[in-house]
Design goal:
The chain has 502 residues and is an alpha/beta fold. The chain has helices spanning 24-51, 68-80, 86-92, 107-122, 140-153, 176-185, 199-216, 338-350, 362-375, 392-396, 398-406, 417-424, 429-443, 455-460, 465-474, 488-491, and strands spanning 14-15, 83-84, 163-167, 189-193, 221-225, 233-237, 250-254, 266-270, 284-287, 292-300, 303-310, 324-325, 353-356, 384-389, 411-416, 447-450, 479-482. Helix 2 crosses helix 13 (429-443), helix 6 (176-185) packs across helix 7 and helix 9 runs parallel beside helix 11 (398-406).
Length: 502
């Protein structure tokens, strides 16, 4: 376990480096004090989540009784993470004790076991220490994680722990054999991207999935991914006959459709024009998943002028519908667009799981829950929610996002590495991935490993060396998402009954 460094609001409140930790009795006393602090602080965090402020209130905010133990463990984990444990970890190692490095799933049982063993080494009366936990207690976190994963994805198929999710292409609406092949080979969940296609095509895709289930006996969940408030390039025009943009050139990002074809710079419409009002000179902008980088050079009456800082040496094409990212800019936009609300009329009653893009704070989850409730028939099954973690704000607020979501319905987290890498910087992606995995493990919440997993294999039929390593790391998650491509059925191979693959 490492000390968190992504959130300055959670300050480290104890530093043990100045204490004598070589004596087991001193170490035991310090660990007992640490346990007491974790209990007290964890209880405060948990009560705040459950009852709000001021509390108590009549109705708990955590309405799913089966999530209470998990939320309390998450609270204990956050309380523990307020302390710099590195000196304690180093001091425990010479005694052959747990260094508290894999404590996420069950915080208190692990602390109690270390204290009990250290007490035996020090010759302390066991009655003065916390009781040694039963063996089953150490596996309770794994059991709860499996339980919450089944609630979201259903029972595991194909003799595999990690589920496989596949993004369906448009042809899945008319090609029943494609859907059947995917599910028979090992697809546990299909993803329908609501940013593409329409209700008729979505209905046909889902009908094919249900028909495969009936004919084969395999079960497959349907996740429908709301498009969300993702800013994109609308119409784009180039000066004169120029086809590519180069470093040092400029783009005028406009609120309305570009109209001046004789301009001396590229022009592109922003699909969410209200964002332009929130930009300032010097802000960074990335286009097309980071293929084009720019900075805001000036704010003009016609739009925002961007100066290109990163582009291909041979120039980059500025294509419509490509994403825009504004790392370092705290944008204030609704998490549900008008299109999302229209799509929810269909999604609420047809999807098993709803993918939620650009979630940033608990109020975003609460908004979706209200809109869902308004569209669901009485006593109907509530779809699960998967929060896509794509921004630094979402990472900072992840514990509260989990409580708001999992406290009401089946819930999971997707590490959406494409936008996340752009928003936080590639240098920190590995660190933040770990952070998300730790927090979700503490809450016993399933994680989806997404974006460019086995991308070469799916699109070209041969994986790269880096993809093999990526897939191995992905086994730490509960689900892996593969995107569409001509070799997608080959990528979703059904492993043998003895295991193999994911």
């Amino acid at each position: 376990m490492q000390t968190p460094n992504f959130d300055s609001n959670r300050e480290i409140i104890c530093n043990y480096s100045s204490l004598d930790l070589s004596d087991p009795q001193n170490l035991l006393n310090i660990l007992q004090q640490l346990r007491q602090l974790v209990l007290q602080e964890g209880e405060e965090i948990f009560n705040q989540w459950r009852w709000g402020q001021p509390f108590p209130v009549e109705v708990s905010h955590i309405q799913r009784q089966g999530f209470l133990d998990s939320s309390l463990n998450l609270a204990h984990y956050l309380a523990l993470r307020r302390h710099d444990l590195r000196p304690l970890q180093a001091a425990l190692m010479p005694w052959g004790l747990s260094s508290l490095g894999r404590i996420e799933g069950r915080v208190l049982p692990n602390l109690d076991a270390v204290i009990a063993t250290l007490g035996a080494i020090s010759g302390v009366d066991p009655d003065s220490l916390p009781s040694r936990p039963p063996i089953a207690t150490f596996f309770e976190g794994q059991r709860l994680l499996r339980h919450h994963t089944r609630e979201l994805f259903g029972d595991a198929q194909h003799h595999r722990r990690v589920r496989i999710m596949v993004t369906l292409p448009t042809q899945a609406a008319s090609n029943y054999e494609l859907v059947r092949d995917l599910i028979q080979r090992g697809c546990d969940c299909v993803r329908i991207n609501c940013a593409h296609d329409n209700v008729e095509q979505w209905s046909a895709m889902i009908a094919n999935v249900r028909l495969v289930e009936a004919e084969t006996g395999y079960l497959c969940k349907v996740l429908m991914d709301l498009g969300g408030s993702k800013p994109r390039i609308g119409m784009a025009i180039a000066p004169n006959a120029q086809q590519r943009i180069f470093r040092g050139e400029c783009i005028l990002l406009t609120r309305d459709l570009p109209s001046t074809f004789c301009s001396d710079c590229f022009q592109a419409q922003c699909s969410l024009p209200e964002l332009l009002e929130q930009l300032e000179v010097g802000n960074r902008v990335w286009i097309d998943d980071g293929r084009i980088g720019a900075r805001v050079e000036s704010i003009t009456p016609n739009g925002v002028l961007l100066r290109i800082t990163h582009a291909d040496l041979k120039g980059s094409k500025l294509r419509p519908d490509k994403g825009l990212n504004f790392p370092g800019t705290d944008l204030h936009i609704s998490s549900l667009t008008q299109k999302d609300l229209r799509d929810l009329d269909f999604v609420a009653t047809h999807a098993d799981i709803i993918g939620y893009s650009f979630v940033q704070e608990p109020a975003d989850i609460e908004l979706l829950q209200r809109e869902l409730q308004a569209r669901l028939p009485e006593n109907s099954t509530i779809p699960g929610i998967v929060a896509k973690i794509e921004t630094p704000q979402a990472v900072r607020n992840l514990p509260e996002l989990i409580i708001q979501g999992a406290g009401k319905q089946p819930f999971g987290v997707m590490i959406a590495r494409g936008d996340l890498a752009i928003e936080i910087g590639y240098q920190r992606l590995a660190e933040i991935q770990e952070e998300i995995l730790w927090l979700c493990e503490a809450a016993h919440i399933p994680v989806i490993w997404a974006t460019q997993v086995m991308e070469n294999l799916v699109k070209k039929g041969i994986p790269s060396r880096a993809e093999i390593t990526d897939a191995a790391i992905a086994e730490r998650a509960e689900c892996v998402m593969l995107n569409k491509g001509p070799f997608i059925a080959d990528a979703v191979r059904n492993p043998t009954p003895k295991g193999g693959g994911l």
